[in-house]
Amino acid sequence: MTERILSLTEATRLAVDALTRHKVGPENAAFVAGALVAAEADGLKGHGLSRLPSYCAQSASGKVDGYARPEAVQAASAAIRIDARHGFAYPALALAIERLTALTPETGVAVAAVTRSHHCGVAGHHVEALAEKGLCGLLFANTPKAIAPWGGNRGVFGTNPIAFGAPCPNDMPLVIDLSLSKVARGRILFAREEGKAIPEGWALDPDGNPTTDPAAALAGTMIPMGEAKGAALVMMVEILAAALTNARFGFEASSFFDVAGPPPGVGQLLIALDPGPLSGGAYGSRITELIAAVLDQGNTRLPGQRRMNLRKQAEREGLRLTASQYEQIMHLCG
Amino acid sequence: MTERILSLTEATRLAVDALTRHKVGPENAAFVAGALVAAEADGLKGHGLSRLPSYCAQSASGKVDGYARPEAVQAASAAIRIDARHGFAYPALALAIERLTALTPETGVAVAAVTRSHHCGVAGHHVEALAEKGLCGLLFANTPKAIAPWGGNRGVFGTNPIAFGAPCPNDMPLVIDLSLSKVARGRILFAREEGKAIPEGWALDPDGNPTTDPAAALAGTMIPMGEAKGAALVMMVEILAAALTNARFGFEASSFFDVAGPPPGVGQLLIALDPGPLSGGAYGSRITELIAAVLDQGNTRLPGQRRMNLRKQAEREGLRLTASQYEQIMHLCG
Q1: Are A323 and A274 part of one and the same domain?
Q2: Are B114 and B82 a contacting pair, CB within 8 Å?
Q3: Do B40 and B147 share a structural domain?
Q4: What per-residue confidence (pLDDT) applies to B119?
């Protein structure tokens, strides 16, 4: 299989072209294409260009409104509600970041509740954008059902990512980004394709019992990272991302992948904190000291470092796509 | 060993008496005693009256300033800094809750950064207090070093609790409260006393290798819940609770238990979110629906339910103290 190498600019241009041919407005297509290419560059292929066919299918079918313009309402002096109007999440989150950045010089903290939203992609990218503006950011997002309440056997919550971004003086922001399932569902899909068992501890079967059979796991639920404690965190994120935003819960949301059903309508909650006034001006030196203490030990590295290295490589060398990936994109470009 | 049963009022009165005899001002003593008795009532003995001797010793020695009055400074329109002035954390957190509750009707979200603080006790109680005022609360606290950066072998971070409280219409608030170590350090101390091995996965020895020897574990570091993902969350909490508040990091903080060293000087970050405006008024019905979905499955229960049941029992029947616990308290009361 021959590989294709595309510059980030070429890849973005192709993705915009594919999206606009599938009922996505040009401004929205730019947000979506930029997000998918940024994920691909960071080596996060599950949120990268592999999503393009399903995104195009969902906008073509009308499950996602590719022309939706997100709308912001000031709910209180430091709080905004954003209606993504069943469009893609990226334009709504970009609007949230813009509004939060405008509010925090006055308020010190601000929150955006995004509702009627869709797949937020790489959760870390949104808080990284806040950190680039000098703000600490927290993002909570819910996703279609995958995890049962602790002790249960039916999915209620999503794999519900938490992301945190912190500005670092004279350096890239520190970004922490994790979904709350022990492993990504993609690893179970892969095991099924390969005909292999999965380790115990990844998933439960439809009766709520541990399983090593990928098919039973896919019919059942994912185990949260940190077991019972993690299950509590999953519920916390579900409340923050969906109850506080009046969005659909995991058990109510349709798939992010296919055209079946109504729009998923999930939610995201984004909090921005201005570290300067909160720390009395000490934040910059304190975060620098903490990072030094972490790196002072052998074998340690900062969270997100691998992504940053892959990003730099992609910026230098372009994105490597398989021939079939490239053909798929060209096919979408008609 | 004969048991003593004390009503919550009696226990609080004795604890206030013990504290005021050890250089704690009466107002601060009321906050501290109330917090310890509330922890004891919830069955959280590690944060309960077992702390009274060490609290008294620390205020008598001056490591904690029992007369400190916390001071609040408005850092921005929705952000306050609270200086606990190396007193107990409880009066500072009570001030934070009071100020956040006053701000949120206007701002929708508000944050308090508490610095030069001490052991926050049951993290869930502070967010429960916000939830009783109709607010969702998030608390991040750092604690003396116990957890290494992932891949490392020396403690940098504390066990760093996260707590979340959510108001529930016509019911007690939902409270999620977890420290980020896989198990509490007390369980390792107990294994050492019993001369038993600990399961692999709880702790690392001083070289950073897994250990089942409780002595090696106590000389080493605690494993975070959720392993590498949990280690990233621990770092997130350290930044929120200490870098954003200009407090001491885990690796800089002295013990919460003994009189050695300077004051611990850790930090807490408390965020209050007003669910009404954020959700456009839908929050109350949404959280009710989510809770119904969780409880609809056999074998599931809400986080914090065990504590609430123990609390009701303690309110009815009083606190059961061992004879030695009771004697210890009477001894402190001189």
Answers
A1: no
A2: yes
A3: no
A4: 98
Is A81 close to B299, i.e. CB distance below 8 A? no
Do A170 and A298 lie in one domain? The reply is yes
Helix (H) or strand (E) holding A317: helix A305-317
Return the higher-pLDDT residue of B256 and B185: B256
Rounded to the nearest angstrom, the minimum Cα separation between B44 and chain A is 16
Instruction: Measure CA of the first residue to CA of the last residue in chain B; give whole Å.
Output: 22
Give the Cα separation of A297 and B252 in Å (integer): 16
Interval B198-203 mean pLDDT: 95
User: Averaged over B187-202, what is the pLDDT?
Assistant: 94
Contacts of B294 in chain A (CB under 8 A): 149, 152, 156, 235
Q: Which two tokens stand for residue B18?
A: 């013990």
Q: Using the beta-carbon criterion (under 8 Å), do A176 and B235 form an inter-chain contact?
A: yes
Crossing angle, helix B89-107 and helix B123-132, to 10 degrees?
Answer: 30
CA separation for the pair B317, A179 (Å, rounded): 43
Measured between CB atoms, does B102 come within 8 Å of chain A? no
Query: B221 CB contacts (<8 Å, ≥6 apart)?
Result: B146, B147, B148, B152, B153, B154, B155, B203, B204, B208
Interchain CB contact of A76 with B (< 8 Å): yes
**Shared domain check, A76 and A176:** yes
Residue B192 covered by a domain: no
Question: CA of A44, closest CA in chain B: separation in Å?
Answer: 16
- Closest CB to A303: pick one of B75, B235, B294: B235
- Tell which A residues from 176 to 205 touch B, by Cβ distance under 8 Å: 176, 178, 180, 182
Number of domains in chain B: 2
**What is the rounded (10 degree) CA torsion for A89, A92, A93, A97?**
170
At residue A111's C-alpha, the angle toward residues A109 and A117, to 5°, is 160
The tokens describing B5, both together, are: 């049963």
Rounded CA gap, A176 and A125, in Å? 10
Rg (CA), chain A: 20
pLDDT at B1 over 70: no
What CATH number does residue B289 fall under? 3.30.1370.60
- 8 Å CB contact of B279 and A303: no
pLDDT string in tens for chain A (334-residue length): 689 999 999 999 999 999 999 999 999 999 999 999 999 999 999 999 999 999 999 999 999 999 999 999 999 999 999 999 999 999 999 999 999 999 999 999 999 999 999 999 999 999 999 999 999 999 999 999 999 999 999 999 999 999 999 999 989 999 999 999 999 888 999 999 999 999 999 999 999 999 999 999 999 999 999 999 999 999 999 999 999 999 999 999 999 999 999 999 999 999 999 999 999 999 999 999 999 999 999 889 999 999 999 999 999 999 999 999 999 999 999 8
Across the strands, what pairs with B138?
B164, B271
By C-alpha distance, the chain B residue nearest A231 is B303
The three-class DSSP label of residue A256 is: coil
